[in-house]
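Hello Y.,

Per our agreement to keep a running log of every chain we model this quarter, I'm adding this entry. I've kept the format consistent with earlier entries: sequence first, then predicted structure.
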Amino acid sequence: MHSAPSVSYPVGRSRFLARVQGSLWLLGAATVAAWCAQVDTLGWRQALALASLVFAGTLAWQSWRRMPVGGLHWDGQQWFWTDAGEPSAVALELHLDWQRYMLLSCQSPGAALRWCWVEQASQPQRWRDLRRAVYSPARAHAEPDVVLLSEP
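Predicted structure for the entry above:
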């Protein structure tokens, strides 16, 4: 069995996630606007809904702006996260796979968990290599012993 090829893939702020969050926020805004238009006088419930809408939009914007920017590198054995500093070894886990978009988490020893949306549009020519590497099991540094069974 062959291992997945080594691959480096850029990770940045996801346009897909921005579109999803923006669409959901607009749907919420349209719902609150329709509700406010139907009532005779605006009360504390509508004010709370409007404040919640502003709060949710602010949280979505801040979470998108704080998304990690860097790169993932698979060397055939292990994953590495690269940003402005030195590459660090990470444990990578796949959470969602939507063919053109994947939600991954990267955990470095002693560091906070990073949530990364990777998109095919970031580097289409390397997308299949990245997918192969994500689904490839990380190998141990020592090869397991092989036991051959002989027939009696």
